């Protein structure tokens, strides 16, 4: 309510003309109506009237000034409040987050404009409704859980709710809410915020899926299998676990490439997946060429039946490897373990089914084996499983390390060549010597990859250290298994040809035993490499057949006397006779002799007197890393080098 100018004149006893002048001078200011009439604040006029206002009174003037100041402060505060409210409204309405309030029953009483993006409806259409009208699942269950948390804690943070918008689109919403109470603690309503986190949630689900599934086949992976077996054991159930490994898969990778190998794995996975649709089982891919089948509640007979079906499905699979070449003789080997009979914890079950699978491999492949407790075969297979994993991990994690040991000229003890020695660095940082793993690597079919990796590393070292074209020679051991594999030989020769290395810098060592085991194969391989310009050494001579006749047949450049003769040279007459004779025959055949394991000055003098040209051993230098650092701790006797 406001007073007119006439009313103010009567109440204060001031002429209307004077009131008009005061309005213009700012002494007593009036507001104006749309028609231009002056109106005065009731609060101001009542206050002036009550104070005994007089137009010519100093007290009145001071009072008037105080009132004006008070009104100005109120107007300023009101203006600030209006600006604050406008800012708040702008922030709320332009926020990407949903800001909302409800009544005590959870029905919306206010929503900002972000509501349309989430629900697909205008705010007007949403008033009176609630979140759980749009719940994707059973709304009453989610509603009850949400309200129970609010009642218990007074607030809820990051409550995940799965909604469907009005258009049927999936929405994952993160809700923050707080209860509003009156002075007596009764619920007035709820207010809070919500955010559309659909993209983040789906990304999280995708990451979780990737963590538990194989990228290539999208089958559940080893982690998923372990979790499943843990659950089965914890529940006290019984069941069977099968491991299947594709036989000779390395052949496909080596001859058709890893991309074709991946396609084969996808194909085998598809065949096994089709098989499992009709069975009560779960299929997993463990990595490489290995799959697993879990059969909950299955016992021996059912497990064997499924294994036979799986092996038969792999045998019948026809794979097109490229250029119309069909691989039709594909087979697999399977191991079977029953829980809890063959293990009452996850590690035991997985280890024992792995052992059974390797037993199937050892028995000729293309078969299944049920795990048994026979101690002899168990120990042997345990060892093979351990080394298969150790070697595979070492190659995959690039833990094959090269050492070198100089070959010196005995007359002046000057290093002239270097022998390359392979070691495996274990997880503790120690180095495993080849005597511990070479034979197993040969039987496991992994020595070819090791030999090739050693030569690749050496060639890379020679390039990086400007050794191409120098007079220094490097001796490299090759396995009999490698040189008997024509596919490996083709890859090996291609590697040498592409390396730009001077072939005469490379001396390849073959042990006497290996050379004599397949003489024709050895002769052919030596001839191929000699034609390229490489050189050869017959290593460990005297430890095997000790045939001087075959020494003539092998077109090698160096003979390396087995270290067992050199170590006993000063004390054993038989060793001296053998070494002296070998030196004389070697000179007649124009071959150079290298003595291994030279460790004492006495052995050095005897060898020099006998005319041995070169020596190698701890007397001159222990093996060092190829880059030239000191030798670290090893995990086996150095004599195994």
Q: Determine the strand fraction and express it as a percent band.
A: 15-25%
Major sheet, described briefly? Answer: 8 strands, mixed, barrel
Reported by name, the CATH topology of the largest domain is TIM Barrel
Assigned CATH class of the largest domain: Alpha Beta
Amino-to-carboxy terminus distance: 109 Å
The tally of structural domains comes to 4
| Mean pLDDT across all amino acids | 83
Outline the low-pLDDT stretches.
629-641
User: What is the number of helical segments per DSSP (H or I, 4+ residues)?
Assistant: 24
Short key terms for the protein model shown above:
Alpha-Beta Plaits, 4 domains, Multidrug-efflux Transporter Regulator, Chain: A, Domain 2, 8-stranded mixed barrel, 25 strands, Beta-Lactamase
Folded structure, characterized:
The protein has 641 residues and is of the alpha/beta class. The protein has four domains: 88 residues, Multidrug-efflux Transporter Regulator, Chain: A, Domain 2 (Orthogonal Bundle); 108 residues, 2-Layer Sandwich (Beta-Lactamase), CATH 3.30.450.20; 155 residues, Alpha-Beta Plaits (2-Layer Sandwich); 176 residues, Alpha-Beta Barrel (TIM Barrel), CATH 3.20.20.450. Helices cover 46% and strands 22% of the residues. The strands form five sheets. An eight-stranded mixed barrel has the order 16-17-19-20-21-22-23-24, surrounded by four helices. It has a five-stranded antiparallel β-sheet with strand order 5-4-8-7-6, sandwiched between helices. A five-stranded mixed β-sheet has the order 10-11-9-14-15, sandwiched between helices. A hairpin with a 5-residue loop joins β6 and β7. α13 packs across α14 and α16 runs parallel beside α18. The longest helix is centred in the N-terminal third of the chain and has 37 residues. It is elongated. 31% of the residues are buried.
